[in-house]
């Protein structure tokens, strides 16, 4: 399944596990055509591929009372082999790409759309315990070392630059950078400077 064929705003709730994994592994291949044997080899060899499979299994298991203990066990195993803490209660649409797993943290309250791309040392979570976690639209890319924190909304197609700290809503199609993050480019022809609107606290 081409990544472009994944419907917008898809969540995995109505998708079979096999269909979700097919979309994820196709996206992880990043345009390369892989046979089933080569996909299996990559899952065996590369931690980021195993992390995606393990996370999806844990998310499905977590939906049932019986499966929750196994989901938490899988989450712990994933942290052990990949250094990524991927909470099974999170909801992430199909077409997920994890570029590198080291230091990656996704909280249990995170909701994300289709075709999410995550780099190493990214944190998606809350600013304080039980303070709410972010919701991300479709086609969002989060660069290495970036933090997206609190009950905020990140629009479709947003690119979050490396090492950014995002603490407030970001409109669709924008590029944000900095700590605190600011909009450095908007969708369409309109552009703003690197000292554009501060999105660290809703200003």
From TrEMBL:
Top-level division of the source organism's lineage: Bacteria
GO MF annotation terms: transferase activity
Coiled-coil residues: none
Keywords: Repeat, Transferase
InterPro entries: Hexapep, Hexapep_transf_CS, Trimer_LpxA-like_sf
Transmembrane segments: none
Protein's name according to its UniProt entry: Serine O-acetyltransferase
Species classification: Bacteria, Bacillati, Actinomycetota, Actinomycetes, Propionibacteriales
């Amino acid at each position: 399944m081409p990544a472009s064929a994944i419907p917008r705003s898809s969540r995995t709730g109505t998708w079979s596990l096999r269909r979700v994994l097919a979309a994820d592994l196709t996206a992880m291949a990043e345009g390369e055509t892989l046979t089933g044997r080569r996909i299996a080899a990559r899952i065996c060899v590369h931690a980021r591929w195993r992390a995606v499979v393990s996370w999806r299994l844990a998310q499905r298991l977590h939906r049932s009372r019986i499966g929750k203990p196994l989901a938490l066990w899988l989450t712990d195993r994933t942290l052990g082999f990949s250094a990524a803490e991927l909470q099974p209660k999170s909801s992430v649409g199909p077409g997920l790409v994890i570029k590198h797993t080291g230091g990656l943290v996704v909280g249990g309250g995170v909701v994300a759309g289709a075709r999410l791309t995550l780099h190493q040392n990214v944190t998606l979570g809350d600013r304080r315990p039980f303070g709410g976690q972010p919701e991300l639209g479709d086609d969002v890319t989060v660069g290495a070392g970036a933090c997206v924190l609190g009950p905020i909304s990140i629009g479709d197609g947003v690119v979050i630059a490396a090492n950014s700290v995002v603490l407030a809503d970001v409109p669709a199609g924008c590029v944000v950078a900095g700590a605190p993050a600011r909009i450095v480019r908007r969708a369409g022809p309109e552009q703003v400077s690197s000292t554009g609107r501060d999105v660290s606290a809703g200003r």
